[in-house]
Amino acid sequence: MADPFQNVDAAGPEFIKAFADAMDVRQSDPTMERIVAAYLGRLEFPPDSLTVEIGAGAGAVSRRIAAHAAPAQVTGFEPSEGFVAEARARAADHANLSFEQADGTALPLEDGAAQNVILHTVLTHVTDPGALLTEAARILRPGGRLVVGDVDFSKATFANAPNDPLDVCAREFARSYVTDAHLVGKLRSLIAATGLELEHFGMDSRVVTTPDQMRPWVEFTTRDMVTAGLIGEDMARALMAEHDRRAEAGTLYGYQAFATAVARKT
Ligand SMILES: C[S@@+](CC[C@H](N)C(=O)[O-])C[C@H]1O[C@@H](n2cnc3c(N)ncnc32)[C@H](O)[C@@H]1O
User: Fold this and answer.
1) Sheet containing 197-208: order of strands
2) pLDDT surpasses 80 at 7
3) Distance, CA 122 to ligand 1 centroid (Å)?
4) Which of 77, 105, 122 to mutate to test the pocket of ligand 1 (most atoms within 8 A of CB)?
5) Residue 1 confidence (pLDDT)
6) Is the pLDDT of residue 139 over 70?
7) Is there an atom of ligand 1 within 6 Å of 61 CB?
8) Which residue from 5, 29, 260 has its CB within 8 A of the most atoms of ligand 1, so it is best to mutate?
9) For residue 63, what are the contacts with CB-CB under 8 A and spacing of at least 6?
10) Within 10 Å of residue 254's Cβ, how many Cβ atoms?
């Protein structure tokens, strides 16, 4: 199956609602909150400035950015009409935040319009990450900054033992919900090609041990494997039961390596 994040509207309203909720849950994770707070701390938000999130989804990260940036303006651009509708509904109480439907390769902004541009778990879902980075560099003002935060999905795992059967769900996610699981390894050279100056490149470990964070992904991937005919219903139920057993026993373990790159336009 092709990565549904390449064309979210084609994936349908059930997908949009489920992943809008999943992105909100992910942003509520203390590790993710720490990662976002750390990169926001590297940026400047003059009161009359604009910060842009490209690929804003349903706005989980945009809302966090807007809370930090206020009174400066934040705009989330997102190609999916369904996600834009969700994002607007979920951000009603943020006066400095708006959302517009646009592809990250063609943003309706003048050159140099933005103080900051943020791409949070977007570049792993596109076929031409260089095109989004070139557009990000175009809309940045001199002295402005780009943040790219993304998961090294090639290293993501649910395993806490050799040949752990639950790990198949992590590998299925990287295969079916990600376009380039190795994007993070290419990130520094992709940013260098835009002419922006890399100020920071670092990795954080994100360890997921709670059922609210991990269960949706086990559920999505087991259901997809049944639909694809890879496993039967009994195996899907067994994987869910194993997830629930570990949640009960306190042995759930999901691991992600999360990259943050910050680059400045000179
Ligand atoms: C995993 S979601 C992340 C959403 C949001 N940044 C967050 O972290 O909550 C990936 C997003 O990238 C968007 N996307 C995919 N292709 C894109 C493109 N060419 N330009 C801009 N966004 C794109 C998808 O529509 C989706 O909303």
Assistant:
1) 97-101, 73-78, 50-54, 114-120, 140-151, 254-264, 197-208
2) yes
3) 5
4) 122
5) 65
6) yes
7) yes
8) 5
9) 27, 90, 91, 94, 97
10) 22
Whether residue 126 has its Cβ less than 6 Å from ligand 1: yes
CA of 59 to the centre of ligand 1 (A): 10
Q: Is the CB of 125 under 6 A from ligand 1?
A: yes
- Give yes or no for residue 16 CB within 6 A of ligand 1: no
Question: Residue 20 is encoded by which pair of tokens?
Answer: 């809008």
Confidence of residue 2 (pLDDT cuts 50, 70, 90): confident
The pTM assigned to this predicted structure is: 0.97
Q: 234: CA distance to ligand 1 center in Å? A: 33
Cα–Cα distance for residue pair 122/119, rounded to 1 Å: 6
Q: What confidence category does residue 82 fall into, taking pLDDT thresholds of 50, 70 and 90?
A: very high
Per-domain boundaries in the chain: 4-151+180-207+257-264
Tell me the per-residue pLDDT of 47-79, one tens digit each, with 9 for 90 and over: 999 999 999 999 999 999 999 999 999 999 999
Q: What number does CATH give the domain 4-151+180-207+257-264?
A: 3.40.50.150
Please write the tens of the pLDDT for every residue from 166-190.
999 999 999 999 999 999 999 999 9
106's tokens: 């063609």
Q: Cβ(83) to ligand 1 under 6 A?
A: yes
| 91 within 8 A of 66, measured Cβ to Cβ | yes
Query: CA 258, CA 155: separation in Å to the nearest integer?
Result: 10
Q: Is the CB of 259 under 6 A from ligand 1?
A: no
Tell me, what's the pLDDT at 157? 97
